[in-house]
Design a protein that fits this description.
With about 170 residues, the chain is of the alpha+beta class. The chain folds into two domains: about 80 residues, no CATH class; about 80 residues, ACT domain (Alpha-Beta Plaits, 2-Layer Sandwich), CATH 3.30.70. The protein contains seven helices and seven strands. It has a four-stranded antiparallel β-sheet, covered by helices on one side. Strand 2 and strand 3 form a beta hairpin. Helix 2 crosses helix 3, helix 2 crosses helix 4 and helix 3 packs across helix 4. The longest helix has 13 residues. The two termini are about 35 Å apart.
């Protein structure tokens, strides 16, 4: 998604920063040009402050997105992913597993979640970074309870896994 938008904003650093932040937050645009997170309207100035640009840059970016049929279709239909449990996992009695692997190689999610499933471990949430928007994408799994050492070793030894971090 960023690659598609990026080609239209390659010479407009401020506008490109606005588009990146919109993608990161899951902001959408209404056909009339309002910035939205689900049913909540976002002020241009709020997004501008977050990105470090003037509010007019945000407005010009929205207009430019709406003028391109492909980008309009993308940004009028974008939705935020939802609440991440990562920061509150320990409060809920969950563990967090951060996996780095080759994001262009198929099977990372399948192999890791398969290893957990064979041990009956419940995954409460799975978040995978988009390699087009994150320099070092990770698979983040919020897992019910504590992970046994044997499963950590099993996942660490998977061919598709380059790195593993456990947050308790």
């Amino acid at each position: 998604m960023l690659a598609i938008a990026g080609s239209n904003f390659s010479r407009q650093k401020g506008r490109f920063s606005v588009v990146k932040k919109m993608i990161e937050l899951g902001l959408s645009i209404t056909p009339s040009g309002k910035l939205m997170i689900k049913d909540v309207k976002i002020q241009d100035s709020s997004l501008a402050n977050a990105v470090g640009v003037d509010r007019r840059v945000v407005r010009d970016t929205v207009i430019q997105l709406l003028e391109d049929p492909v980008l309009q279709n993308i940004f009028c239909n974008t939705k935020p992913v939802g609440t991440s449990l990562v920061e509150i996992a320990t409060l809920l009695g969950y563990s967090v597993l951060l996996i780095s692997g080759n994001s262009l190689e198929p099977g990372v999610i399948s192999e890791v979640t398969g290893a957990l499933a064979t041990k009956g471990i419940v995954i409460r949430q799975a978040l995978a970074d988009d390699p087009d928007t994150v320099i070092e994408p990770k698979l983040t799994l919020v897992i019910e309870g504590k992970l046994p050492d044997e499963i950590i070793a099993k996942i660490r030894n998977l061919k598709c896994v380059r790195g593993l971090t456990l947050l308790n």
